[in-house]
Amino acid sequence: MGLESRLPTSALAVRGYNITNLGRTPELLAHDAYGPIVRSHLQHAGDLCNSITGRSSDLVKLVQDQIEPGLDLYAEAIAIISATEMAQFQITRELHGLNLFRANCAFGYSLGELIAASASGAFDSDAVMRIPLTMADDCAELARDTTMAIVFTRGAALDEDAVHEVCETISCEGDGMIGVSAVLSPNTMLILGRGNSISRLKQGLRKRLARKINIRLNDSKWPPLHSPLVRAKHVPDRASMMMSQVPLSPDGPQLPVFSLVTGRKAYHDRKTRNLLRDWSDQPQRLWDVVGQIFARDINTLVHIGPEPNVIPATFRRLADNVRQSTGDWSFESLGIRAVQKMAQRPWLASLLPKQTNLLRAPKIRHIVLENWLLRHPPK
Fold first, then answer.
1. pLDDT digit string (tens) for 180-229?
2. Mean pLDDT of 292-307
């Protein structure tokens, strides 16, 4: 089955910022057919970025030389990601005759949500991209003493309210603010903390939750978007002021777009402006949107952007857990042995009676668009 025939039962998944953001963009840029479109988007995004930062960065050269922009060029990294993703939409439409917006729905992680919503027509893309570009240097400065922790359990689900309470208690003690940045699954969250707040997190969680909590630190530095840490630079209020001047489409997006801010369909009503304010300091509710995807009987995810990471990894972990819990049996033969295996993952076992569609996770097909484009050059 080709990509075009899969679109009506596909979801578009748009990636956000990562410590590596080039993916196969250098190959697309060097491609005889794709290169002019990619170059045009990089130049346009570079001009917009430079007008805001006051720098004179050459995004085309960065991509050609395969240089990953670091924190000192965080705005440039944002611009490269947005340019690459917008280019992939245009290439697919103009050189392959495929309208990706015939898909069932779309969503994006972090920056990817802004691209998904703007590319589908919810608002002007340049106007909305000015918001993260304007905040980029301040967010990069906050990142220098920010640590990311992956908090997870191997058994029951995490009590999200309790995790928020622990983070708020630690923040009130001083010596660093801390907060939830993403809910990846019922038993996995990303936490961002400044100062020595992360070092106090495990003790606080174990005391509050009275169970074994695992914490894995990430060595990289991450701009603390989608957490209360950005309030130190008044990012949410500044973003809200900028959003008041972004032109919105009266017709909304061309297809349903789900927001990771709320976990629900968004960008189709007057709440859009408030949503983008909350985008800056509220956690990314990826798991809620995962549930929405399975509820819509989706069988394919089309990953847009360079080297997709968080979204495919989340779906892969879920698929692996389902396989291990069921022995990869067919639904018809799902029996007592499978149920016994599910009991080893209480968070999953508690969901399946109400969300049996999660059992389809191993059957979901993943298409990474940059790979597809390079495998299928236009005729």
1. 999 999 999 999 999 999 999 988 998 888 778 899 999 999 999 999 99
2. 94
The model's pTM: 0.91
State how far the Cα of 81 lies from the Cα of 16, in Å rounded to an integer: 7
Edge-to-edge strand list for the sheet holding 265-266: 265-266, 257-258, 105-108, 10-14, 300-304, 365-368
Q: What is the CA radius of gyration of the chain?
A: 21
* Whole-number Å distance between alpha carbons of 102 and 254: 8
Give the whole-angstrom CA distance, residue 258 versus residue 113: 8
CATH superfamily membership of 3-140+231-375? Malonyl-Coenzyme A Acyl Carrier Protein, domain 2 (3.40.366.10)
Query: What does the CA dihedral 117, 119, 124, 128 come to, rounded to 10 degrees?
Result: 60
Task: Please compute the mean of the pLDDT values over residues 270-288 and round it to a whole number.
Answer: 90
| 145-220: CATH, from 3.50.80.10, 3.30.70.250, 3.40.50.300, 2.40.50.140 | 3.30.70.250
Q: What is the 3-state secondary structure (H, E, C) of 232-253?
A: HHCHHHHHHHHHCCCCECCCCC
Decide if 322 contacts 362 (C-beta within 8 A).
yes
